[in-house]
Design brief:
The chain has 361 residues and is an all-beta fold. 0% of the residues lie in helices and 39% in strands.
Length: 361
């Protein structure tokens, strides 16, 4: 009997052959079964089938947090003859030393998918939630399974641990110009911050130095400070304190610098140095000029004095005006001084300066 060939992938099929109307013999068994091998290349899930079911695996188990979704594929080692619905159960990754992602905070529940009969793969995706938290790469447990249905066999469940790659980095931020100041004798508080929390410690080294002019002097205006500072995981700032020294010297407000280096766990600020200002609280010294005496023809030496040194240059205008001595003709007793001509300058740290007036002979 000839069998018709076709291009359909199908189960084995049977038909019956029956003997009738015998002549010269008696029919004892007049029915036979013919089987057409369908060359079926799929596995039958039926509970009575002896077909070996394929095994499943999952690929594509990593994605950046800001990708929006993690695209994955379930692949089976061979096609099945019936549609197969895959479902997904997610849970925390409880393996030691792992940082687990959180459902509805880092990702959302994926939707079930159906592997069509005769196919060997189906795609699905896990929605990802982008945030600004520095949390490191995180994983979660994903179980691929299917409901148990009467009369059908199921594939073995598959467990994988997808990875969500963190794309966030905290940036270290130093206090800006004028943000850190204190009256001399107090503590300069440099508040170093992060622009966002980090789930790991951020550390950096720091050291003080004399700032730009007018510069504070180490040992005179402040105590040198250096060390390592830590912004603990979850925190946003740490304060580096620098002790300033009180004195009685009237001086400019002065600058001291704090420089950071060896940063770990965050990206650097655009500048690695912050400037603190030590505000002076001392009154300016009192100034006086003393009387002077000289014989005719000598120089009169007037001494301008301060009652205490100043940390800054002190200047004052000087001029003369007549008493009983007359500068103008016809007496010409002395050579006059005018405001437009000169200034008396007492250098920083000094306490006196002389003013000379020529006495005419």
């Amino acid at each position: 009997m000839a069998i018709e060939d076709d291009t359909i992938d199908e189960h084995d099929e049977t038909f019956l052959v029956e003997l009738t109307n015998p002549s010269g013999a008696v029919i004892v068994d007049g029915t036979a079964i013919g089987t057409i091998d369908g060359n079926l290349s799929c596995a039958d899930r039926g509970s009575t089938s002896t077909d070996t079911l394929p095994t499943a695996s999952v690929s594509g188990t990593s994605a950046d947090e800001d990708a929006g979704k993690m695209d994955m594929t379930v692949t089976v080692t061979g096609a099945m003859c019936q549609d197969y619905a895959f479902q997904f159960k997610v849970s925390a990754d409880t393996r030691p030393g792992r940082s687990s992602a959180t459902l509805n905070a880092d990702f959302r529940q994926p939707k079930s998918v159906t592997l069509a009969a005769g196919q060997t793969s189906v795609d699905f995706s896990v929605p990802l939630i982008d945030d600004d938290v520095v949390e490191g790469d995180e994983t979660f447990k994903l179980r691929v399974w299917s409901k148990r249905l009467p009369g059908l066999r199921n594939l073995a469940d598959v467990e994988v641990y997808p990875t969500i790659v963190d794309d966030d980095t905290a940036q270290l931020q130093l206090p800006g110009t004028g943000a850190t100041s204190v009256t001399e004798g107090g503590w300069l508080s440099f508040v170093v911050t992060l622009d966002r929390p980090s789930n790991t410690d951020v550390t950096f080294d720091y050291a003080t130095s004399d700032g730009s002019s007018p510069a504070a002097a180490e040992g005179d205006d402040y105590e040198a400070a250096s060390g390592t500072a830590t912004i603990s995981a979850g925190d946003l700032s740490v304060t580096v304190a620098v002790r300033t020294l009180d004195d009685t010297l009237d001086e400019h407000d002065e600058n001291v610098d704090l420089t950071v280096s060896n940063l770990s766990g965050a990206s650097p600020d655009s500048d690695d140095t912050a400037t603190g200002v030590i505000t002076d609280d001392d009154d300016p010294p009192a100034m006086r000029v003393g009387d002077a005496t000289a014989v005719e023809g000598d120089q009169l030496q007037f001494t301008v004095t301060l009652d205490a040194p100043s940390g800054r240059k002190v200047t004052v205008k000087r001029r003369t005006y007549d008493g009983s001595a007359v500068a103008a003709d016809p007496d010409n007793d002395y050579e006059p001084l005018t405001l437009a001509v000169g200034t008396v300058t007492i250098a920083a740290g000094a306490t006196s300066q002389t003013v000379s007036v020529h006495h005419q002979h």
